[in-house]
């Protein structure tokens, strides 16, 4: 069981959130290009050095849940039930992320991103990084028996499912549609002579 965060960690998280909230508020009010790092720091009442200790760039302020999303995808692989196949677990997590990012209050943020070349470029690099992290998590799982190329391909398909669904008229239906293709691709990538069944993952009790 993970220990709850201590006082110092809670304070750091609160400061980070305050900075992100201030940045988003200014970006939406004035426009992304019209706001500088010093403006954000002043709005959040922190030093510029404090801002950069939490966010590596101006673009990162917009994608403040970047690391959390990346970790959630990896946990969807590693923390799934011992008897749960990989693809349904990934589909469930992608659906949750899509619901978060297609909520009504997210629409102005995505309009801002879509009109900014710098933010679109950052989002693309973020998606590639998430895909590589997800591929590593899949490849590390015992019992899946797929090549590194297959793991990377399925990871990229899953990340692309998120992007495609965000732009679709019916995001959840789009996720289901794309994941039917992902499931077929995952099955096609199993080794020749395999059974097609994933080996059950060891439970915590079995690993003791």
Brief overview:
By secondary structure, the protein is mainly α. The protein contains 11 helices and no strands. The relative contact order is 0.10.
Question: Can you walk me through this structure?
Answer:
It is a single chain. The chain is mainly α and 208 residues long. 70% of the residues lie in helices and 0% in strands. The protein has 11 helices and no strands. It has helices spanning 7-30, 37-44, 48-54, 58-62, 66-78, 86-101, 107-114, 117-139, 148-167, 171-188, 204-207. Helix 6 (86-101) packs antiparallel against helix 10. 24% of the residues are buried. The model is unreliable at 204-208 (pLDDT under 50).
List unreliable stretches of 5+ residues.
Answer: 204-208
SS-based class: mainly alpha
Query: How would you describe the shape?
Result: globular
**Number of E strands:** 0
Helix content: over 70%
Strand content: under 5%
**What is the CA-atom radius of gyration, in angstroms?**
20 Å
What's the helix-strand series?
A: HHHHHHHHHHH
Question: What are the defining features of this structure?
Answer:
single chain, 208 residues, mainly alpha, 70% helix, disordered C terminus
Can you lay out the helices and strands and say which pair or pack?
Blueprint: H1 7-30, H2 37-44, H3 48-54, H4 58-62, H5 66-78, H6 86-101, H7 107-114, H8 117-139, H9 148-167, H10 171-188, H11 204-207
Helix pairs in contact: 1-2, 5-6, 5-8, 6-9, 6-10, 8-9, 9-10
